[in-house]
């Protein structure tokens, strides 16, 4: 059977992005796995479970029956949802009642007409935005109801539509399983009910950890009740080569898990037929101060042990003999009965589906500390693009401040759309400070500290960004200086890219031209330029890097850099003629994740940081990821997820992910038909054109060079054949005659 993670939090720490996942909140317990949506875009993960009640479900309209009961069926059982809510830090569920002459809670004094049923079939008489025991709606708490005599907008009993909405966030009462609507028996009474999905945030179990400081330290818990089945799982992290993880004794029966050596984990027990031991041997040491996961199970048929992704070791139980594990002592986690205890960290210890609160117990136990440090050794690699891993008491986070990226793992491009005439200047020295401004010096120099020369000239630069545009010529990026030195990335009138360096010592600036590739084709392109002294390496999109060298006479110092421009070059003093020409009227298109050494000018403009004072923007800069390189496009959104069409209800506006509904099937079918028709027409056209080309003798059959690395055959021809566009134009002329 597939092993699913216990929660969305666990998937996040495998470096996964937002999507649907199967989770199994109680391991191999009775609950079984369920499918949830995990939203990883914030520091804490959101877990969402959907139901089938459509938004704005109408009730009433002169219905004879006194009560209308709306039933919500979830894509999970109530017990499964309880497992999620109980381990979460916070949960919420949106609820809304739109009314026309239909009272809701009958405030201020009466018995409520409408209520909802939550966990364990309990009735609740409070509404969204309010709390348990308070018979009020959100407007009653905020004192802004349409009629101040009532505590709900609907209780005023108006003939016009009104509504009461809000979040239910007392997680012990969630999820909503029924809404019972009462005030519908008068002529003209109508109501509409909406209930959002259950959303939970944070996972108190996943990071629940304790550090064992001495080999005699232990935590004790009440006797483990695992007579016929035991399921134990936990993570450990250590630099010691052996130690007992946990043990529980009976008269002769026992169960025990230990690290036997740096490469062996052992699971042993005795149910009365003599001791049994299962050992997993790892090819690599397990005392490498990284997190490792242990899963041990025992039932009347067999026992098994798994460590990380290593093969599962299984031992069948004898057909005859005892099957019950009878234990009496307390459960010891760590050193037990004079044995050498485990040194290091244990976290997320679950026994038969219940997480033991190691943290609370550790607070009152000498030799054991609550929580754990050093998560970055295991998870630091998920902080991408130069993001720094930061230790937290319960987990870690990625610090993206020195990168041009954003998001929990620093993989979200920060970019903007530039309209013609909009420009941005990043001053390397903040206003009113000397050239020896320290912040800029450290940021401007590449990672090596020794480059901070007093007058701040650069021997090396690292520049990377992505862009998309359809207008050429233009200046994508320009770095000016207090001297004639400059650096620029341009798109020439024919759409080819040019890198231009002027460091002095040469009559003309040094140009690197990338011919035969039209970069102004509206597609996102990635540019990486690294200069170290005389050597320049350029990488474009997914093509292999190419090396260039500055002329022998050229200076290799970029003297006194002053500012970086995006969109347009507005610099005083003498400026290169081409730059001036190409820079007017300005760049139109998208720029994304611009980074010059350790400076991210676009991000500084769009996200307030300590360097935002260096940025000056002219015009309205609109954040957009239209220039993002295709590699960072997230996986299939929930809207296009085929799984959701059959069981989910309509999209919820506050969920951030629209979920498809059956309603859209007709339009999908119509769309499909149209697509087929268009496809047929296109095929016919292609056939005709090829036929005509064959007769005109202009049908090129020479293979495009470098076709392997192009994304498609068309791209290969366009990228490599400068005559491609002319070919079409020629043939067009011939048809016109």
TrEMBL record:
One of its GO terms (cellular component) is membrane. Disulfide bonds join 345-372. GO terms for biological process: cell adhesion. Residues 1-51 form the Fibrinogen C-terminal domain. It is found in: Membrane. The keyword Signal applies. SUPFAM superfamilies: Concanavalin A-like lectins/glucanases, Fibrinogen C-terminal domain-like. It holds the Pfam family Laminin_G_2. SMART domains: 4.1m, LamG. Keywords: Cell adhesion, Disulfide bond, EGF-like domain, Glycoprotein, Membrane, Repeat, Signal, Transmembrane, Transmembrane helix. Residues 373-411 form the EGF-like domain. InterPro entries: ConA-like_dom_sf (IPR013320), EGF (IPR000742), Fibrinogen-like_C (IPR036056), Fibrinogen_a/b/g_C_dom (IPR002181), Laminin_G (IPR001791), Neurexin-like (IPR003585), Neurexin-related_CASP (IPR050372). The chain crosses the membrane at residues 668-689. Residues 208-372, 440-626 form the Laminin G domain. It is a single-pass type I membrane protein. Belongs to the neurexin family. This is CNTP2 protein.
